[in-house]
Amino acid sequence: MSDPFTFLADAPLGTRVVVRTRIPGGYTDALGFLRERSAASVSVETKRGLVTLAMQDVVAAKLVPPAPPPRLRRG
């Protein structure tokens, strides 16, 4: 498996990803679509909006399969 920096550099924009970053006191994940990248940062479009993450804080990243379709309501 490749390191997170190689994965993020090679993944096509629009790929659904999860990126784990280091924050004070622990880690956090951004799940969504890869929208932008540079040597210094990546941007992931999550359900809550566009999140820009510093590459120096990235500790892991991987491809995520498409979200399952919404469940049908009963009744």
UniProtKB/TrEMBL annotation:
Every Histone acetyltransferase Rv0428c-like SH3 domain range: 12-62
InterPro entries on file: SH3_Rv0428c
Entry protein name: Ferrous iron transport protein A
